[in-house]
Amino acid sequence: MSRRVQAKQQAREQARRIREEQERQHRRVVRTVWVFAIIVVAGIGTWIGVAVGTGGTSNTVATPGSVVQLSDFQGLQSTPAPWQPEYGSLPQRLGALTSLGLPPNGDESYHIHAHLAIFVDGKPVTVPANVAISAAEGIEAPMHTHDTSGIIHIEAAQPSNAFTLGAFFDLWGVTFSADQIGSYHNAGSSMVQVYVNGHRVTDPARYVLQPHDEVVVGYGTLGSFPHAVPFSWSPGF
């Protein structure tokens, strides 16, 4: 190999390393700005009410030693299925959840996945792509979806008992509790029923998601939907 060719190759390699370092620096800056924005939003979340017990149509988030009820959560959809991601009030909801203990995204040392299947009156309801991801707002919450597979991505610096099923519905922007999902309330023989890995969960909003949980949320009569939807996990998930 001639010295000229070798010099060109070395120059290209140096340029590649410079580009990679610039990209890493850019990602670090974006993450820093995002964490700062969450802290600012969280500081104005004074409309959050603290309650004892459960009930109503608000979602609950488990935090160490307490249960906090979000009595005035903005942007929650109480409409019939299907439900698209709600982005208009996502910054406020994310800020509120962060103030209640939801870790910020950025450091992905803790990275797990759970699968969610939803049925209303026996019919499957799609969990949409890009739940809690807003390009316009520059938001990627620590709980989110990338596609319509039903996979919930949970990414943060450490585990947290704030990674609840209720928190995911809050980030999605859908009203969810033990007796309501969207516009569907417990009435007569039709009710909200939630199963995790085939087992009934009676306080679903406060259930903390675990790696490879298979969650089924159904509304309807007993037997109108499957209690387990086995999911085939790809390598790396």
Walk me through what this model shows:
The protein is of the alpha+beta class and 237 residues long. The protein is 25% helix and 24% strand. The chain contains three helices and 14 strands. It has helices spanning 3-43, 90-99, 165-172, and strands spanning 60-63, 66-69, 110-120, 123-125, 133-134, 139-140, 143-144, 151-156, 176-177, 180-181, 184-185, 191-196, 199-201, 214-220. Strands 3, 4, 7, 8, 12, 13 and 14 form a seven-stranded mixed β-sheet that branches. The termini are far apart. Residues 26-71 have low confidence and may be disordered.
Distance linking N and C termini: 44 Å
Q: Helix count? A: 3
In the predicted model, the low-confidence regions spanning at least 5 consecutive residues are 26-71
Number of strands: 14
Q: What do the pLDDT scores average to?
A: 80
Subunit arrangement of the protein: single chain
Biggest sheet record? 7 strands, mixed
Percentage beta strand: 15-25%
Radius of gyration, taken over Cα atoms and rounded to an integer in Å: 21 Å
Percent helix range:
10-25%
Q: What is the N-to-C succession of helices and strands?
A: HEEHEEEEEEHEEEEEE
Shape: globular
Structural class: alpha+beta
Q: Which secondary structure elements does this structure contain, and how are they paired or packed?
A:
Blueprint lengths: L2 H41 L16 E4 L2 E4 L20 H10 L10 E11 L2 E3 L7 E2 L4 E2 L2 E2 L6 E6 L8 H8 L3 E2 L2 E2 L2 E2 L5 E6 L2 E3 L12 E7 L17
Parallel strand pairs: 3-14
Antiparallel strand pairs: 1-2, 3-4, 3-8, 5-6, 7-8, 9-10, 10-11, 12-13, 12-14
Helix pairs in contact: 1-2, 2-3
